[in-house]
Specification:
Blueprint: H1 6-25, E1 33-38, E2 41-47, H2 60-72, E3 81-86, H3 90-99, E4 103-108, H4 110-117, H5 121-127, H6 144-158
This protein binds zinc ion.
């Protein structure tokens, strides 16, 4: 299906917001929900599970991506649209790039949420603009050649 009507978009966003309430209601984590849509059908839903799974990476978007990929048995969600109750953080935005989604719709902006929660995620985004060795958590390369060889061998085997 080419595009979606405003009514469908509102329907999917309402579901994402409903899931954000669900995350808190069942005690799974912070109030963030997400649905993944392809051809006007929801193919994956998720909400924040950081608390219940002791997983700081279990954001709503990541949960929805995991559920959709497992359901579809794929690593790519090309052509999908992502509906999030909050604008995706950097980690989730990167995951959305990795899966190849076509468009993101969000309800509340992350800057508003950061201002409400005072979360350190905004600081991370600023820090990542620095060169790797000048970040708050500096990164240093070790044994680059050895690891590169593994990647090259794997890549050649795929061709
Ligand atoms: Zn996130």
């Amino acid at each position: 299906m080419e595009g979606q009507g405003e009514e469908s978009k509102i329907h999917f966003m309402k579901r994402a917001i409903e899931l954000s309430r669900h995350a808190v209601k069942v005690g799974d984590g912070a109030p963030f929900g997400c649905v993944i849509v392809k051809d006007n059908q929801i193919i994956g839903e998720g909400w924040n599970h950081t608390k219940s799974q002791y997983d700081p990476t279990a954001h709503g978007e990541i949960d929805a991506i995991r559920n959709a990929c497992r359901a579809m048995k794929t690593l790519s969600l090309e052509g999908t649209e992502i509906y999030c109750s909050c604008e995706p953080c950097l980690m989730c935005a990167a995951a959305i790039h990795i899966i190849g989604a076509s468009k993101v719709y969000y309800a509340v902006s992350k800057s508003v949420v950061y201002s409400i929660l005072g979360q350190p995620l905004k600081t991370i985004e600023e820090d990542l603009k620095n060169p790797t060795d000048q970040r708050k958590i500096p990164a240093q390369s070790l044994l680059s050649g050895e690891a590169q060889k593994v990647v090259e061998e794997w890549h050649q085997g795929k061709q």
